[in-house]
User: Which sequence fits this backbone?
């Protein structure tokens, strides 16, 4: 019986901190807005990348799973590599025009290029 209680606390047995509060790891993520309500920004960035250009897609509102899915689709469409970090989609190369047109075609009406 005691093992179950300890496991439900994440293995915490005792804390000497008087201001300690147990955090909830199951924090809810924001719901993903539908594409027509997303206000995405597309910009070119070369800072801290050894002069290489990358296209950044910012301001996505939703779950990380949906963000990663969108990133995967964009990278596949552009035929380049990239990643999803810090709530941004990073696509290698200057693909602003391609990505902008793809997003408009797929319902992201409030997208703008910077």
Assistant:
């Amino acid at each position: 019986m005691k093992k179950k209680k300890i496991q439900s606390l994440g293995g915490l047995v005792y804390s000497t901190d008087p201001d300690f509060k147990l955090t909830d790891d199951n924090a809810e993520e924001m719901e993903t807005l539908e594409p027509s309500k997303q206000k995405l920004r597309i910009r070119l960035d070369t800072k801290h990348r050894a002069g290489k250009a990358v296209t950044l897609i910012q301001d996505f509102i939703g779950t990380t799973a949906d963000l990663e899915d969108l990133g995967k689709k964009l990278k596949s469409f552009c035929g380049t590599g990239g990643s999803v970090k810090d709530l941004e989609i990073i696509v290698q190369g200057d693909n602003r025009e391609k990505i902008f047109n793809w997003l408009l075609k797929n319902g992201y009406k409030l997208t703008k290029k910077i």
